[in-house]
Amino acid sequence: MSKNDMWGGRFSGGPAEIMEKINASIGFDKNLYKQDIQGSLAHSDMLAAQGIITNEDRDAIHQGLAEIQHEIEAGTFDFKTELEDIHMNVEARLREKIGDPGARLHTGRSRNDQVITDVRLWTRDALDGLDALMADLQRALIDKAEAHADVLMPGYTHLQSAQPVTFGHHLMAYVEMVGRDRGRLADCRRRLNECPLGAAALAGTSFPIDRQMTAKALGFDRPTANSMDSVGSRDFILEFLAAGSIHAIHLSRLAEEIVMWMSDRFAFITLSDAFTTGSSIMPQKKNPDAAELVRAKPGRLLGAFISVSTMMKGLPMTFCKDMQEDKEPLFDAVESLTLAVAATAGMVDDMQPRPDRMLAGLEKGFPTATDLADWCVRVLNLPFRDAHHVTGALVAKAEARGVDLAELSLEEMQSVEKRITSDIYSVLSPAASVASRTSFGGTAPSRVREAAAAARKQYL
Ligand code: ARG
Question: Global pTM?
C-alpha cells in the first residue's frame, strides 16, 4: 500500500485495506462533482483577483476543470478509491493535467469548507427542483378540483361517513398541505443559502481571501459568519429532511386515499393503465402500485432524518469524519421525494372520479343528519343540543327500517318532533347540503371554485 499523495508527507506507510474501504466516500460523493468544480472555479477566480495566484494559474485551472467535467460526464473519468472522495479525485486529476497551478488551487481552502459548500449547492439545486415539481402537483390538483367542483362525495371523519363534500373540495385540501410544505422548504433554502467557502479547516485563513466574492459568484446571499459553525454544522440537512418528511407524509395520505378509492369497495376513481400494474396470476387485477410506493416513501425520509440526526448528536465542534455519513441519506431522500411528488402529480392528472359511485356512497351513513339538525335550529328555533337529540332519534328510526333519512314519512318525523314540516325534505339531499356550506373555506361548489382561483394566483 502506498502513501497518500495528497497528505502523505508525514506518513511512512499506506492505509490498511479495510481503512481505505471505510474511509472512502467517492462511491457516493461523486454525485457532487458539478458543485465541486463550480466551487473550485469560484475559488480560483477569487484567488487570482486577490493576487494570491496568477491569472495564468487561474486560466490553467479553469481549462483543466472544464476538461475534467467533460471526462466525468463522458464516463471516462477514473474515480479512485484511494483518493477517498470527489474533492481529492478532482484535484489529483487536475494536478496530473496541469501540474503546479493545480497544486495551488487548495490555497486558503480545506476539504472541510469545500465539502459543505458542495453539499449546500447540491441541496439548493435539489430544493429548486422539488419546488417546481410540487408546484406541478398543485397545478394538477387545482385543475382536477376545478373540473370536479360539483361532484358530490362522502366526506369522512374517523373514516365514517360524516357530511357530503365535493371531490373538488377534497382535492383542494391537499393544495393547502403542499403549499405549506413548499413554504417549509423555502425557509430551509433561505437559511442554507450562505457560503461556507473560506472558513478553511475551521479557523479561517491567513490569506487575504475575499469571501464576499466567492459567496456572490456561487449565488449565495452572503458568507457564513463563523468559520467553526461553517464546517461543523449540518442543520440545513436536518431541516430539509424534517420538512421533506412532512411532505412525504402528506403525499402518503393522498396515496392511501387513491389506494382506497381504487379498491372495489369504494370504486370512487379510476386510474388508467399508465399508473397501474397487473398481476402475473390474477388476470382481473389492476393494482395501484405507484400509489402504494408513494405511501411507503416516508419510511425513507424519516429514516434519513433519524440517521443524520443521530449521527450529529453529541458531536464536538468542528468537523468530524462522522459527517461524511450525511450524504447517502440526503441523496436517497431527494431521489425518493422527487419520485414520489412526480408520481403523485401523474396520478392526480390521470385519475377520473366516478360520480355515480360517490353518490352511492352518500346513500349510506346518514351524511345529511347535520343538515336535519341545523334545519330544526333554523326553522324551529331549537337549541342545537336538542336538535341533535331529535336527529339522533330519527337516525335510529331510519336505521331500524333500513332506509335513508329522506325516506322517512312526515308522520314518522313528527312522531319525534311534532313541529317538523315537509320543508325539512329540502335539506336532506347531498346536493342541497353541499350547496348550503357557503362559509369561507367551506365545500359549496361556488367556494371551491373561488378557492381554486385563489390558489392558482397564490401558488402557480
Ligand atoms: N469526504 C469528506 C466528507 O464527505 C470530506 C471532508 C473530509 N475532510 C477531512 N479533513 N477528512 O465529509
Answer: 0.94
What are residue 438's phi and psi, to 5 degrees? -95, 5
> Of all protein residues, whose CA lies closest to atom 2 belonging to ligand 1?
324
How remote is the C-alpha of 401 from its chain's centroid?
Answer: 49
Q: Strand 269-270 relative to strand 352-353: parallel, antiparallel, unpaired?
A: antiparallel
Region 277-285: mean pLDDT is 82
Residue 115 Cα: closest atom of ligand 1: 5
Distance CA 12, CA 2 (A): 9
Give ligand 1 pocket residues (Cβ under 6 A): 25, 29, 85, 111-112, 115, 321, 323-324
Residue 5's pLDDT band (boundaries 50, 70, 90)? confident
- Position 1 scores a pLDDT of 47
Residue with cell 487548495: 106
- Per-position DSSP letters for 337-363, written without gaps between them: HHHHHHHHHHHHHH-EE-HHHHHHHTT
Residue 331 has pLDDT above 50, yes or no: yes
Catalytic hit among 158, 206, 409, 439? 158
Cell 424519516 sits on residue: 302
* Cα(90) to centroid(ligand 1), Å: 14
The 10s digit of each residue's pLDDT in 65-85 is: 999 999 999 999 999 999 999
CA distance 143 to 22: 50
Q: Which residue from 61, 45, 158, 49 is spatially nearest to 101, judged by alpha carbons?
A: 61
For residue 154, the cross-strand partners are: 164
CA–CA separation, 86 vs 88, rounded Å?
Answer: 6
Burial, 223: exposed, middle or buried (Cβ in 10 Å; 0-12, 13-18, 19+)? buried
Q: What angle do CA 159, 160, 161 make, to 5 degrees?
A: 120
Q: State yes or no: is 148 an active-site residue.
A: no
Answer yes or no: is pLDDT of 176 > 90: yes
What is the H or E stretch that residue 12 is in?
none
